[in-house]
Input
Amino acid sequence: MGYEQLVNQNPLRVLNLGRHNKHLGLIMARAGLGKTALLVQIALDSILRGNRVIHISIGASIDKTKIWYDDILQIILQDGSVTNPHQLIDMVQQHRMIMTFKESAFSRPRLEERLNDLVLQDIFKPNCLVIDGFDFENAGREDLEDIKDLLDAMSMQAWFSAVSHRDDERVSPVGVPGPCHEIDDLFDTVVLLKPEKEMIQLDIIRNNGEDSAAGSGLILDPTTMMVKKN
Amino acid sequence: MNKDLTLVRNIGISAHIDSGKTTLTERILYYTDRIHAIHEVRGKDGVGATMDSMELEKERGITIQSAATYCNWKGTDINIIDTPGHVDFTVEVERALRVLDGAVLILCSVGGVQSQSITVDRQMTRYNVPRIAFINKCDRTGANPGRVVEQLRDKLNLNAVMIQMPIGLENDLEGMVDLVAMKAVYFDGDQGDTVRYEDIPDNLRDEAEGKREELLDAVSMFSDELMEAMLEEQEIPEEMVHEAIRRGTLALEFAPVMIGSAYKNKGVQPLLDAVQTYLPCPTDVENIALDLDNDEAEIKVSNNPDDPLVALAFKLEDGRYGQLTYVRTYQGMLKKGDFIFNTRTGKKVKVGRLVRMHSNEMEEIDEAGSGDIVALFGVDCASGDTFCDNTINWSMSSMHVPAPVISLAINPVDNKAQENMSKALNRFCKEDPTFKSFVDHETSETIISGMGELHLEVYIERMKREYNAEVEVGAPRVAYRETITQRADFDYTHKKQTGGSGQFGRVAGHMEPLEEGEYEFVDEIVGGSIPREYIPACDKGFQASMQKGVLTGAPITGVRCLINDGNSHSVDSSDMAFQQAAKGAFKQGYQKANPVIMEPIMKVAVEGPSEFQGAVMGSLNQRRGVIVGTCEEGSYTVVEAEMPLSEMFGYSTTLRSLTQGKAEFSMEFSTYKQVPKSVAEELIKEHEASKKNA
Output
């Protein structure tokens, strides 16, 4: 592929993204702190490893989602270490697919049908899903377990984003805030974004099934929304 | 005609195909007393809608040319440009938008914001055209204006808010509630001629109050008085709301949404009122001209009828009475008998007949004021030319014209057809800047090129019908290009000694890929190793080489040629010799610069019921497409993909059979991309075979 360098430089490597197939991750933050940006960076990291990614946007448009990728790619390309930018842009396009759903239209059967459309016809075989905008507030544990089963069966890695609220005081024993405080055990990795002075702190609450102490983590540059080294 | 410019509206009506533009225009003309009977687009009475004046349009039920027409509504002059809805004709739409001050964007209440509406809306944004949205076909089964408004916000990023609310929907559509006046509006009579205002039915009152609240919230941003009145909970005068809506609309920050059903004669008169109230008059809009005498400096046109004339020819038509030129005046007066200057050619022309168009009927007038849209007879010009009087030399900024992506060979069947064909081609090229024709000297075939299959098909049909030119049509060909991917040096000496004076020239330097632009020539010769007078010859030689690539004979683009060394001979060097040397140098460098073939990639959007999504994606995938994404909207899905144009021939047939005719697709040019190796090899082989046969 020729992008190992980019992958190895990526501070996200502490999350061991490349390792597991049946892996469920969760990114939580209050609105506007960079959940989508982080999801896109995870997706790009996966693409650079040669994987195929489906980006599921619930309640957003294809164009808006595409712009996220274009912007973040632009930042990656800025430092000039990639010799053939067009090739990288093309590769991202070929390894990424965007699916958008209306809030009300997203469900396991729908998702399964869509994925089967792609996989059975050999159009696009994703290794990783990123799911932005899933409604944790109104979804029950069964709904999520259902989706987890599907992803397990298709042996895919998946990352969800969830919005927490300032006045929501619910929290799980390990520190996962509501609305995910009761289902956090379903996720292998949980990451929390918090504003910290001028930066955004990226707390890894659980990393590949192992709970880690708060404060261990990375920094997100709020101007570019790119993950920085600690 | 009104002299007062505040009583003039130049508006366009544009939208997705089949959302009922022509039907709506027909109703507008009827209610403004321009026509006395309503004909339907695919009418049973065999007359066809008035705006669809070309036979072909009547037959296919689509509007191809944007006929301009004029009407008067409650004292306001309205010039309407009916624009084609199919994406292959977007240049027509764009040209129409250029001269418009405002527009009505029609949407189907069932189909909603479809891909073509997005294209058209993008164009409107480019030309800063304020718009009103009209959700048509509210009488159809499945009508859902609320969903359409949501799409206007999501997909078009418009701050769209309903200023009306339907009374009943689908079959029960009775009328609408005007949320500004807070009245129910009904339409009486066979043709809905009489508008009746009533109190809002009790069962709708609460909903209407809520919707009005939403509307006021949205428009209060544009009016401090309104904001104040709301805060102090005063009675809000209707005028104040109108003013706020108008301000928001003109600033392109608000889009009032109206509803109705043109076919059922509902909602048309309120739409006309809204055009009058909310859309800009010519003086509300800033139009910029370029001063050709002053290095194309930008100048704002004044709209003042007493200033020197500036008028733009935006459309040509070959009618029964010779060439008809549609012009829009931006300032000054256009008078019968006056002499005007075409600033592109510098030619002086006399204004013979001046007419106001009503589709294909016309009305003679003596003069046209600034801001008006009229037509001239017998004026020789091309579309996009600017006319001024002899005191100024301005040009209205040039229009964005995309390069053609597809071409076909045509051969006239006999001599008579040959003559007619050249007449027709000459005309079409003038009318439509995206349509081009030329003769391929190697095959002596006539090649026409344009924006898509349908685009060319329509012209071939027109040739047959209007010019009686029967032609044989070859298979469509994609406009490939070649480019280089790496830097390469060249050093070439052209030497010929054939008795008499010889030819000698040496050119050295390098070529490299050019990121933006087609061609660049850099001269870094120092010390006169190539004499100054021969440098243009080198440039010329390179440019000549770019016309035909080595791989497939397609034109080469994106090359920077730099020369930094050379040699000349005091006797044997000549312009010709250096041109030849440059050609040789180019050829030498080109082969080392790793040349590749590029093909046009189209942005394709297929819309259809979700159950066919899998099949649609499969079909796109088979055609070397890259699926960008899918978008689920209830039972409808849109699949967006980037497709090579060469794979899209005949796709409409495939799509129809795959989806029982329930899906449709739109396509627009996106970019050029390198073709995959296997395809490139095929193309090169084909090119070699055709060279052998020639």
